[in-house]
Design goal:
Distance between the termini: 23 Å
CATH class: Mainly Alpha
CATH superfamily: AhpD-like
Helix content: 40-55%
Number of helices: 3
């Protein structure tokens, strides 16, 4: 999933959520009612959609702040997907 959520074997609901997250991240102006309806069709209610949107937007925000200020990752945090045994 780290490299490409499309090949991670996710169930249909998780794939729909990832599609939404990707669209909100890459082309937020194109997100509309049809995108929310797609999530609802997979069992997400409005509270879950709201919460997911908040988390997605927060990660987009904080990443842009860090990138804009040139913040380097903490040295004690392993890159996402790195096996813990690789660093021991």
């Amino acid at each position: 999933m780290v490299r490409d959520w499309r090949t991670a074997g996710l169930d249909a609901a998780d794939q729909a959520l990832c599609r939404y997250a990707e669209k909100l991240t890459r082309d937020q102006h194109a997100v509309g009612p049809r995108d929310l309806d797609a999530l609802r069709a997979h069992g997400f209610d409005d509270v879950a959609i709201h919460d997911a949107t908040q988390v997605i937007a927060y990660f987009n925000y904080i990443t842009r702040v860090a990138d804009g200020l040139g913040v380097e990752p903490e040295s004690f945090i392993r890159p996402w997907g790195e096996d813990v045994h690789e660093t021991l």
